[in-house]
Amino acid sequence: MQGKEYLMENDEEALRLDIKTDTSVVEKQALWAGIETGMRVADIGCGSGKTTSILHKLVQPDGVAIGVDGAEKRIEFAKERYGVKRIEFICKDIPEPLNDLGVFDFVWVRFLLEYYRLNSFNIVKNISEIVKPGGILCLIDLDHNCLNHFGLSPRLETTLFAIMKYLEEKADFDPYMGRKLYSFLYDLGYQDINIDVASHHLIFGELKDADAFNWMKKFEVVSGKINFHFKEYEGGYREFLDEFNEFFTNPRRFTYTPVICCRGRKPMA
């Protein structure tokens, strides 16, 4: 984002986001949240634009979708890959006022708030300004992110927890954002709040190429931005990465991450 550097910022981030986004999952979540044909929809933190495209199809024939992201490169990617009639992609610093976008029947915020641990509620409050009275705000994020694995060695488990703690304290990343979403909507006075909890990462057996690319890219990018000391490993980051790769490619391993979806209706003025 423009206000601060996005933790996962890299030249392949739009591609990573595009590959890991499952169309059927997004459709299911959006329909559960209450999206309907004819709505004016905003996708805040739209990334590659794939989610915006999916939401756009769900509001046709007369609906409109606007995707907003803080990175020019991702907006360019979105325009090139998903730019069609009734979709608009806009580059904006999301923590800043968004009122110039107008108001929306349905506002979607998926996998954004975890990157703003300290300011997440204020960002939701800001986004809420563009939800029209009676409109729906849907917040979706992971919980216990990157921390649920079976088959780790003691030093690998210790290191993974230490990395996530480091990211909380030094990079404003929140591995536990999902569990906070309900309170955000509650504190803002939203009505008809509903919650759904499911698995986002569910990895067992042979490793899929998309999961391999997603997880190894995360480690590669984040490790290059933090000054974390891999004290459990004499060989440092490279030895840690080799062990994690050996664990992650082993079909015996089990990894999962809960995703929490929270939706509410803004009170009528």
UniProtKB/TrEMBL annotation:
Do you know which Pfam families this protein is assigned to?
A: Methyltransf_31
- The protein's Enzyme Commission number: 2.1.1.77
Instruction: Output the InterPro entries linked to this UniProt entry.
Output: Methyltranfer_dom, SAM-dependent_MTases_sf
Q: What class of enzyme is it?
A: transferase
* Top-rank lineage group of the source organism: Bacteria
Q: Name one GO molecular function term.
A: protein-L-isoaspartate (D-aspartate) O-methyltransferase activity
A GO biological process this protein is involved in?
methylation
For this UniProt record, the keywords arranged alphabetically read as follows: Methyltransferase, Transferase
Q: Which residues form the Methyltransferase domain?
A: 36-143
* Alphabetized Gene3D superfamilies for the sequence: Vaccinia Virus protein VP39
What this protein is called in its record is: Protein-L-isoaspartate O-methyltransferase
Say which species the protein is native to: Kuenenia stuttgartiensis
What's the name of its gene? pcm
